[in-house]
Amino acid sequence: MDLDTARQELEEFIPHVKNISDSSIKKMAGRDLARFKEFKKQGIAVKFGRFTQKENKQIQKNVEEFLSLTGIDSAEKLLFTSRYPEDKDTIHRLKTEHHFCEKISEGIPRPWRLIYYRARKMFDPNNYKGRYTKEEKEKLKKYQALHGNDWKKISELMSRSNLSVAMKFSEIKSAINYGPWTKEETQKLMNAVKEVMRRKLETENASSLSSLEQSNTDLWIDREKLYQQLPWTEIETKVGSRYWRQCKQKWNSILTSKLTRGQQLYRGTNGLQAKINLIKRLYETKAEDASEVNWDELSNAIGDVPRAYVQAKFYRLKVSSVPLWKRKTFSEIIEYLYEKKLPELEEEL
Questions:
Q1: Is 140 found in the same domain as 112?
Q2: Based on the structure, what is the number of domains in the chain?
Q3: Among candidates 265, 266, 297, 267, which has minimal Cα distance to 281?
Q4: Residues 193-212 pLDDT 10s
Q5: CB contact at 8 A, 101 and 31
Q6: Most buried in the list 21, 91, 117, 274, measured by CB within 10 Å?
Q7: Which residues contact 80 (CB under 8 A, 6 or more apart)?
Q8: Host domain of residue 244
Q9: Is the separation of the CB atoms in 94 and 69 below 8 Å?
């Protein structure tokens, strides 16, 4: 299949396919296109975003079955073969002979690459090593000075995952302020967000923005776009005194404040009604996992607020109301709130 045809056929399943590189399109045509078409026959849509508990279990099952099939003795050897140079050739041969790509993605309607990365995150023992010691932080700074942002190399030297070392370096690379946000910092954050969103909108729809640019008018931004994932490490650099997670949290609080015009949605009778609406709407979704919930739609249940605000309120509700909630599944938590907490709230209201 030629590149243009592959891109055209993939567009049916992946809306943002025009932003994907040619080399990735070639790989997806071989690994994913037939799978996507098969899922379409079954009435199953291709998914993106957070993996569900059901999908995680399917990945675990696929990996365990492949290990049993090939005799490879650990998931780490299978997914991090470069750590075992003496077994590398044998493992690569077994992967080819037993169709690793197809086996690892069985039953999961997502691009193969995302499934593979998720499996690596699940089975990497270096992901679960706790807090960084002072010595590790110094090593991380030294290795970054030597190797730049080659996080794969640095992760091998530190026996930590790629993501872990990249995020930790983001936190410690400069003197970070942990106190209250100043007016200057908040303004820098808002300017940084405005800049990256302006650039994103210009890229997506340059022609319709030309008149706005000529008149030097601020862009109108749809409410939904405010919730989109932003390049937080870039925003962190522009702010200068806060690391990316602080910037994200502050932006969410700014959104909540602006979109609700300062209303105290979770106080008094309004607060009780909001909790009641939230529990009812969650129960109506019949979701088995939090990732199956459309939090953007659900935000209407308690007011014109960002999804992060709704998720935070749900978290507080389950922690304060559901005994032993950590041992319960998402659906069990919702059922408990609906059957036990909802009648109490309605009576109180």
A1: no
A2: 4
A3: 297
A4: 888 888 776 665 554 444 34
A5: yes
A6: 274
A7: 120, 124
A8: 183-203+219-260
A9: no
